[in-house]
Amino acid sequence: MKISKNIFQTLVVRGGVAVMNMAIVFLTLNVLGADGRGKISLFLTDIMLISMVTSVLANSTVSYHVPKTNIKPLVRTGLLWVLIISLVMGVVLGFLHNEYLQKHLFPISLLLGLITMNQMILIGKEKIKEYNIVFVLDPFFRLLVLLVGFYAFKTESLTVFLIALYIALGLSLIVSTTFVFKIIYHDVRKIEIESKEIFKYGIGTELSSFIQFFNYRLLFYVVFYQLGSVELGWFSVAVSVTESLWIISRSITVNQYSKILNTTDKLKQRIITNKSASLSFVLTLGAVLLLVVVPKDLLGLIIKKDLSNIQEIIWILCPGVLMIAVSNVWGHYFSGRGKYQINNLKSLVGFVLMISAAYFLTPKYGILGVVSAMLLGYLGSSLTLFGFYLADKKH
């Protein structure tokens, strides 16, 4: 099974990013404890929620329209949207959760939204190398600043985490803007698209991501409010470990999605998708098997705290993580062809299954009930998407 140069480069980059992100998770857990890690997880979940809304005009709609129209209207519309949404939602969520980190929701979500928009322009122009450079900057400098703050300056506080975020995102924005400025400057195409068309595609594609966000992260809020920040800390670590395996699928879909956007041949699109799905399954399965057989003693060398039931959570989630890794490829196939309604439906199916299961299982089984509900959501959405992909072949 041949791996293209772009996929290989992206896999290497994202593999490195996955290692750095895991190092950040374990580092903050070991230094700040489960309570500190839980508060960071709540903050990052709020950031993700804001990002889901800013992505309506700053994510896939940008990469989709970049090959088809002048980039300048996309940038103007996206900039204004990211600014307004980051401000409004940052203030609202900061008021609702009233934690120390939440005071910084607006500036952090603004930086992240602008970086995301720049990255989508790079994907739309098939600038995978530049995209990968930007992608690796954030976790690298975040980890570096955390290490310096925790160990060189002997400061064990959430403030160090905030400083690391600001430095990493600030540098990423500068570099990505430099790449994108060159593209915008040389774009002299006369074709421009109306803002309503940008919004129409964006709301259609991101509705799926918005529902999917609740599939992946609504249970974080459930754990925080019902079981507390300490339980959320442990839960978030286990989820982070398993979801890190998606780095393989996401590396493959970056290349797949970019190619689908730049061809109208349906047969070619399906060939690209089938190869991508097979590659994602094989590589992710290997990673899942390695994760499952990791001895508890070895995991204990990395996590310098009571492991609690982290390993049990990981085992439960692994089948669903494998299914999502493959279904992500099918989802990008439909997104690339503008059939975002299918992704919306599969996300909704997963969401309904997860919420229904959580309602019945959480009161009786606690954290394991939450994990089982998450697994059912993974499986439901993946199987739904698989059914649509098979049906699409007949048309």
Basic shape:
globular
Tell me the fraction of residues in β-strands, as a range: under 5%
First-last Cα distance: 28 Å
- Write down the domain tally: 1
User: What's the count of strands?
Assistant: 0
Spell out the helices and strands N to C: HHHHHHHHHHHHHH
Mean pLDDT: 88
Number of H- or I-type helical stretches? 14
Classification by helices and strands: mainly alpha
Ranges where pLDDT stays below 50 over 5 or more residues in a row are none
Helix content: over 70%
Radius of gyration: 20 Å
Biggest β-sheet description: none
Structure commentary:
The protein is mostly helical. It has one domain. Helices cover 84% and strands 0% of the residues. It contains 14 helices and no strands. It has helices spanning 5-54, 60-65, 71-97, 105-124, 128-152, 158-185, 195-227, 229-243, 246-261, 266-292, 296-302, 310-336, 340-365, 367-392. The protein starts with a helix and ends with a helix. The model has no long low-confidence stretch (mean pLDDT 88).
